[in-house]
Amino acid sequence: MRLEVDGVSKAFGGTRVLDDVSLVVDDGELAAVLGPSGCGKTTLLRIVAGFESADAGSVAVGGADITSLPPERRRIGIVPQEAALFPHLTVRRNVGFGLPRGAASAERARECLDLVGLSGFGDRMPHELSGGQQQRVALARALAPGPGVVLLDEPFNALDRSLRVSVRDDVRDALKRAGATAVLVTHDQEEAMSMADTVAVMREGRIVQKDEPASVYAAPRDLGVATFVGEAVILPASAAGGVASCVLGALPYAAGGSEGQGRVAVRPEQFVLTVPGGGTVGRVERVEFFGHDAALTVVLDGERDGEGVVIRARTRGDAGHRTGDRVGVEVEGSVLFFVS
Amino acid sequence: MARTVTSSSARGTRLGRPLRRVPRVLLVPAVLTALISLLPVAYLVVRASGGGIETVVETIWRARTWELTVASLGLAAAVTLLSIFVGVSLAWLVVRTDLPGRRVFGVLAALPLAVPSYVAAYIWIAAFPGLTGFTGSVLVLTLVSYPYVYLPVAAALARIDPAMEEVALSLGRGRMSVVLRQLRPSAAAGALLVAMYALGEFGAVSIMRFDVFTTQIYTSYRASFDRTPAAVLGLLLVVVTFVIVVAESRSRGRAAYATRGAPPRRRRVVALRPAGKAAALVWSGAVAAAAVGFPFAGICYWLLEGASSGVRPDRLLAAFGATVGMAAAGALVSTALAVPVGVIAARYRSRTASVLEQASYVGHALPGIVVALSLVFFAVRYAYPLYQRWPMLVLAYAVLFLPAAVGAVRASVLQSPPVLEEVARSLGRGPFAVMRQVTLPLALPGVTAGAALVFLTAMKELPATLLLRPTGMDTLATRLWTETGSGAYGAAAPYAAVLMLVAAVPGFVLGRRSTKEDT
Amino acid sequence: MSMRRLIAAALLPLALTAAACGGQATQEAQTTPAPGTSATPESFGENSLVIYSGRNENLIAPLIDKLKAATGVDVQVRYGDSAELAAQILEEGDRTRADLYFSQDAGALGALSKAGLLAPLPQPLLDRVPEKYRGADGTWVGVSGRARVIAYDPRQVKDAPKSVFDLTDPKYKGKVGWAPTNASFQSFVTALREVSGEDKARKWLTDMKANDTQTFAKNGDILNALDEGKISAGLINHYYWFEKVAEKGEAAVPSKLAFPQAGDPGSLVNVAGVAVLKASKRAEVAQKATDFLLAAEAQKYFSDDTKEYPLIEGVPTAAGLPALDSIKGPDLDLGKLDSLDQTLTLLKEVGLV
Asked: What residue ranges are annotated as transmembrane (chain B) (predicted)?
């Protein structure tokens, strides 16, 4: 169901944690609220879930105002960070916790376990499951009563990195198959970008930008968002007529038409390293090899005012650059320009 | 299952942080509990104000009052400090070292709870008549009350991750620096009970001929039939208790909220060096001998010695039944009353929450006779049909022993992460259902331990039992009182023996629990 | 313990409060036990009598059985400490459940009398005991007497002390035991004040304290210390000695009793007595019981079994005891022994309680 958060503010002892936050998540949409720790995103989640009351503003689900309802009457499922399964109940009873007793409920619980790929685990106790399995059970438990909205609070934080990606896919699949409206709260931009249909970037108690992941990445509203949602090399520049001039030369930029003094942001994958030629030249300072790709730190030659400018570029893993190589640096595609 | 468990700071932004507003289903019963435990205070206010301001001022400014206040505080301080020392050292030896026979010592360490203080005092003074006054009182009260520190500290030690100690060692700090820091909340909670117990104790100190504050209160009732000075003194005791309770809750601070996550799976044990092992054995053995062995031996001596011991099995059986029944009902009711307060104390952070918790403690240092008379006062006026019926006695036990139950509930609720309750709320359960289906089942072992503690304390209770029991009903303690009152120590011995043996059962269970989590 | 049970238990206090709120206790409530609340069979029927007894059950229960047999009255006894029971009656006021109060000493009776909680007794009952052993206002009557004595250790003291004033002698330094919080001792101090005057009483207390007199909680403790040779004399009631001899045998009790000379406050005879409560609805039955306690059978019981002095004429005292009228004691109205407030003030000033 559609979730509408409208103008929510919250202060704790004089400290403003949420400042007029509005957020709309459409029915069936998986939205990520992305922000650094302390930005207020968990407080937002707690207000939506009903554990905290807002000083101002309202929360509505499916068009019905739930601002003053207690948590148990909101029909909002939550999947907390550490799964938080009831340790004294079996997996089946955990999943069935939010359901009325009866045969239909048993069937529903089984269905939800199927949904997260854990049929056959019903009789286990939570401590007999791996971290990833626990997290999936937590999701099944949240989905079982058919909630209007599911909130996920940094659900993969406690998982091993290797496990995280696969659990992430499982969770997304399950949410999509259940057709659930979901809000994922996270500080991990990779997680947000890869899982969510839309990403709301939060900073200092405000939502700065909400859009599809690709759009947030490609057209961030400001420099802060740009650097938060992905790596970027930031260089001083001046812009005029759709071209931003900086140490890397005159680069076309896409965003908004503003002109004047400012900065450009260049994504690492936009750099193309070539044989040194007429353009910008630098020296490879460091190579971080990841297998499928590599990150190269390149110090540009200080011909003009670009004395000692350092960039980080992504290349294919088999490109074969070594420390000390001299390379030409070119930029592919449009860059981002922000007036300072 | 290797998981990193992050502890959340009090003002953190994760799910499961302490809440502010207490829901009504908890608030209403908790307020009721607080009101019930404040009954004695209300009674004291009524009685103190009845005598006029001059009596009040005169009582307070009497030099003797201050002398006795100092004596009482000195006694309470000494008993508390020694109890902390004995309790913490035994807990550490039993839980964290390879002390030979540590399971046995673990059980023995809890057993002094089964020994009524007046019996211990009598036996000590009979064997060592010179042991009167301050020294004797401190000795006896410490030996009977250190388990209040030992039990929570042993439980806390079992939960604390030994990894922390290893980190401390690797940083060149002593092991104890970390251990003591982490034990502070549980040791302080136990110490609070000990301090209040020492302040309110009358029987043992009067046998030890050490005059304290409660002596004055009793004297006021017994010799002058003057209830105003007694009430003024009682209120003064309430004020002292209040100060101590607030100090304890300050010292508890935020540490109480850091016990999140699963207990460590392995328990690493410190290998004692031979000399240390010998010293540890001597120490644990000496405490067990003095606190458990000696009183039990004394009772055996009474049993053998008594010329007048023509004990009637039917009376013994009736007293046994009444004791167990009343104490069990008392334990059940205190626990039931303690649950809302304990849950609030563990889960909520507000002025209301702390006031409710402190209210349940404030009357605890009052001697039994004050609590009993206050219930006489209210029952006669407002619950006459229940007066001198067993529910009134059960209620008295609840008022007297509530703090132990509240502490147990609070500690065990703190052990389960609050996020579980939020999840349950989000799954459609109201606050009451959450408490019934999630909070309490998880806290049950700890809550039960608290109930056991109340049970065995109530079994030994005398002054309130005398005044509030149904006419004709005898408990083991009142029979003991009757027999010793007529000088028939031989006849008293079987009652004392049965009382201690029955109280040893929950004592044994509590002690075993403290060492059980080893495997 | 199942959850359900715990919840049920949680409801109990609610029920209690509900009962408390609706507890405008009626007369019916008094006679009808609330359903399911009684652990022991109790009845508050017309003919049954409730006694609050400050006297020890071991001493009195056989007498109560005789009372039941002799009068056919169903008797319920609530045992406790005399003063604590008095405090309880003071709190209960006119809603007391006691019909008869049986006190260990005259002081507690005096306090209840002063509070106006006692009903006057019929004159013929009062007249059975000497005037000095009953309440001046006729609200209480003594049923048995006990003498203050000086117990001493003949191994340490050659001549039995003749007066409490002997005990301030340096030869008794640190060797005398007393129990300042004990009610009988306080009665004795009250007598001392009445007989010798405030100044002399204060001086005696101060001198005794300066003589390092040992403080004990109970008379029995004094006697034990005496028999163990820790002290050489002690201020106790006469029957403690007889009780201990009965319990341990004469060999275990080397101490002897000295009855101080005539007129010495140290030979005060105090009484245990009874009073009928003004609020009692069974005053007639209570008077019947009082009558029984003042008749030959009961008086003989005191003499034979509790080693106390019978108070009516014609009942002989126990063997080994000097006759009651031979103890010339202080010339004193026992009614004045309720001036315990002043005694206590004095004891406090001297620093003894």
From this structure: 25-46, 66-93, 105-125, 131-151, 186-208, 228-247, 278-304, 316-344, 365-384, 390-409, 438-459, 488-510
Q: Does B479 reside within a domain?
A: yes
Distance CA C353, CA C349 (A): 9
With contact defined as beta carbons under 8 Å apart, do B449 and B514 qualify?
no
Pick from B421, B415, B483, B485: which is nearest to B443 by CA? B415
What does the mean pLDDT of chain B come to? 83
The label of the residue with tokens 């807002």 reads A54
pLDDT at res. B224 = 66
Q: Is B268 on the interface with A (CB under 8 A)?
A: no
Phi-psi region at C279: left, alpha or beta (left = phi > 0; alpha = psi -120 to 50): alpha
Residue appearing with tokens 């908790």: B30
Residues 161-190 of B with CB under 8 A from C: none
User: In this structure, what DSSP letter does residue B253 have?
Assistant: T
Of B14, B19, B433, the CB nearest to A42: B14
DSSP string, A106-163: HHHHHHHHHHTT-TT-TTS-GGGS-HHHHHHHHHHHHHTT--SEEEEESTTTTS-HHH
Kindly list the domain boundaries of chain C, sorted by start residue: 41-144+271-320, 146-268+338-350
User: Cα separation of B380 and C20, whole Å?
Assistant: 10
The helix/strand count (H/E) of chain A reads as 8, 20
Alpha carbon distance B212, B224 (integer Å): 18
Q: Hey, what CATH topology would domain C146-268+338-350 get?
A: D-Maltodextrin-Binding Protein; domain 2 (3.40.190)
Q: What is the reported pTM?
A: 0.80
Would you state the structure tokens that stand for residue B331, as one six-digit string? Answer: 């334990």
Around Cβ B401, how many Cβ atoms within 10 Å?
27
Query: How many residue contacts between A and B have a Cβ separation below 8 Å?
Result: 96
CB contact under 8 A, B14 and A51: no
* The pLDDT of residue B4 is above 50: no
CA A192 to chain B, closest CA, distance in angstroms equals 18
- Cα three-residue angle B307-B312-B314, rounded to 5 degrees: 165
Report the CATH number that the domain containing residue B331 is assigned in CATH. 1.10.3720.10
3-class SS letters over C4-61: HHHHHHHHHHHHHHHHHHCECCCHHHHHCCCCCCCCCCCCCCCCEEEEEECCCHHHHH
CA pseudo-torsion sign B193, B198, B199, B202: positive
Q: Label residue C305 by pLDDT band (50, 70, 90).
A: confident
| ipTM for the complex shown | 0.86
**Alpha carbon separation from C290 to B371, B428, C83 (Å, rounded):** 33, 69, 20
User: Three-state SS across B265-317?
Assistant: CCCCCECCCHHHHHHHHHHHHHHHHHHHHHHHHHHHHHHHHCCCCCCCHHHHH
C-alpha B504 chain-centroid distance: 16
Q: Do B337 and C186 touch (CB under 8 A)?
A: no
Q: Do chains A and B touch (3 or more CB pairs under 8 A)?
A: yes
- Considering the domain boundaries, does residue B1 fall inside one? no
Is residue C183 within 8 Å of residue C83, measured between CB atoms?
A: yes
Q: Are C127 and C138 in contact (CB under 8 A)?
A: no
Please give the order of strands across the beta sheet that includes A149-153.
Answer: A76-79, A149-153, A181-186, A30-34, A198-203, A206-211
- Phi then psi for A308, rounded to 5 degrees? 65, 25
Q: Are B465 and B369 in contact (CB under 8 A)?
A: no
pLDDT of residue C251: 87
Alpha-carbon gap, residue C188 to C234, rounded angstroms = 13
In the CATH scheme, what is the code of domain C41-144+271-320? 3.40.190.10
Question: Is residue B509 scored above 90 in pLDDT?
Answer: no
CB contact under 8 A, B472 and C42: yes
Which chains pack against C, by 3+ Cβ pairs within 8 A?
Answer: B
Fold identical between C41-144+271-320 and C146-268+338-350?
yes
Please state the separation of Cα B272 from the chain's center in Å: 32
